[in-house]
Each structure stands twice: as structure tokens, then as C-alpha cells.
Amino acid sequence: MARLDVNRSGELDVFVRVIELGGFSAAARAFGMTPSAVSKLVARLEQRLGTRLVNRSTRQLQLTAEGCAFYERGVRILADLDEAERCASVHDTPRGRVRVSANVPFGHHFLLPLVPAFLACHPEVSLEISLNDEVIDLLEQRTDVAVRAGPLKDSRLVARQLGRTRLVVVGSPAYLAERGHPTHPDQLAHHNLLATQHVRARPGWPMRLGGEERLVVPAGNTQASDGEALHRLAVAGLGLTRLATFQAQADIHAGRLVPVLEEWNPGDIEDIHAVYVGQGGHLPLRVRAFLDFLAEHVSIPT
Q1: Given phi > 0 = left and psi -120 to 50 = alpha, else beta, which region is 86?
Q2: Tens of pLDDT, residue by residue, the chain (302 residues)
Q3: Cut 0.70: pTM above it
Q4: How do beta strands 157-171 and 240-244 pair?
Q5: Cα of 53 vs its chain's centroid, Å
Q6: Strand ranges (DSSP E) for the chain?
Q7: Which residue among 11, 147, 157, 221 is least crowded, i.e. fewest CB within 10 A of its CB?
């Protein structure tokens, strides 16, 4: 018979988080514990099981073969437990807080306008929204959903595509009247090119030259932390920048921005995904409701 004073699900939850976050300190922050308490809990678990689950070093933790099997089964067990509790609950409506991170352009053009409608449909859900173009660690930041543009590299994440967007180089009519309208990518060297200060998947702007693609590294007198800031600076006439079509289209139609070098544009497309940490395919009802709402209501022009 299992001892009633052993919280096996609690131990398992802590152990799984230690592995997912890569260490005792990160797991301790997630649970509001001390690293020493987390380390002792894992040691007690190993003692109770009679086997070593992780090999410890000063820099990292490495799962043993037994630890790997225990972790994989543990993830499934915790997901099944969450599902069992949800099915047994008399409350079958989404409730609780959803922590969302999105890049600034998507946040301003799509996410924020949808918030009132989402909360009206799900009044027992609250949202905690962070807009930032930096790529965050969802586990470490305890974020439920993040919206990301471009290639996905984190294999721990599950992605749901929201759409695709074409990228275009633009400038204001006033800037182009003063500095000239470039007709060849080589002429960009004589222009003020506005770019983000964050490292992106590509170090420059792709241009199609003679059947080959060349990257133009933007150089200018201003860098910005996010794409929406670059958008506003371009409208203000500071220089040329490269934006998603959905950011620029209203200003292009209104004559506040003008596309340049379109004949040299390789038709670069960025995929936009909502990403989340998946555990055995299970998601809390509040998170699934938010993802479903985004997928249904976001329409991104290419």
C-alpha cells in the first residue's frame, strides 16, 4: 500500500519541471521553492525508487536511462491526471489566467483588437499580455502561449499556424523625395536603413539579383526594439525599413508609405505561429479556448 504521507504526484511534477527547465534553480523559481528544497525532493524520490534518475554536475543535469524512462512516463501521467480532474469537475467552462507573449506588430494589429471579444466569450478567463519582439523561453517565463514570426527552432514547443505574411521594403514619400527612389539594391548603400536591434533568423534584407539571392545588411542612424517602432519611424520619414505586409498596407493605401524595389523582392514569406509547451497533447481548457479563438479570428494578409 502506498504511504499516504508521500505526495507522489507532487514529487513527479517537480521532477518533470526540473528536467524541462534544465536545473534545480529554474524549477525552484517556478514552484516558489528554494533550490536546496528541490534538490532534496529529487534525492528523496531517487531514494524511494532505489535508483538514480539524474547525474549531477556543476553545469548541467543529465538523465540516466532510468530517469529518461521515468520522465517520459511522468509527463504522460501528469497530463492524464489533469485530464481526469477536468473531466470530473462540474466546471466545464474555461477559467483562469492565460499568459500570452506576442511580437509587437502582431500584438497591435491582431491580438489587442481581439481581446474584448475573447473576454466577452470567456468571462471567467483573464489575460496577462506581454508585447516584445524578443524570443522568450516559455517554460522559464511561465508563459502559456507565444506568437512568433519566422522559423521555429525550439523542439520543445508545439506550433499552430495562424497565417503567413509577405515582407516589403517601404519609405515615406517625403523621405523618397529628399533622398531619391532606389531603383537597384546597390543603391541602398546610400540610404538610411532602419532595422531592429534584435538578432533575427536572417542578418539582412534578401534581394533577388540575376537569379540569385543576396542579403543587404541594413545600416542606418537608428535601431529600434520592435517592428512597430520601425513602422512609425518610416512613416515619419526617417528612412527605409522592411515590414510585414499587414503592418504597411493601410499606410500604403493611404499614401503614407511607398513600396520600393518590389521588382527585386524575392517574395520572402514569414510564417506566424502560436506556440505552446505540449505535454502528451493535453492543454488546459483556458489555453485551448484562447488558441481556438486566435485561429478562428486572425486573418493575416500576404
Answers
A1: alpha
A2: 344 455 788 888 899 888 888 888 888 888 888 989 999 999 999 998 999 999 887 667 888 989 888 988 888 888 777 767 666 554 578 888 999 999 999 999 999 999 999 999 999 999 999 998 887 778 777 888 999 888 777 666 788 999 999 999 999 999 999 999 999 999 999 999 998 876 554 578 889 887 788 888 888 899 888 889 999 999 999 999 999 999 999 999 999 999 999 999 888 888 999 998 865 456 788 999 999 999 999 988 77
A3: no
A4: antiparallel
A5: 31
A6: 54-56, 61-63, 96-102, 125-131, 145-149, 157-171, 193-196, 205-209, 212-216, 223-224, 240-244, 258-259, 269-277
A7: 221
DSSP secondary structure string for all residues of 64-119? -HHHHHHHHHHHHHHHHHHHHHHHH-S--S--EEEEEEE-HHHIIIIIHHHHHHHH
Cβ(18)–Cβ(61) below 8 Å: yes
Grid coordinates belonging to 69: 524512462
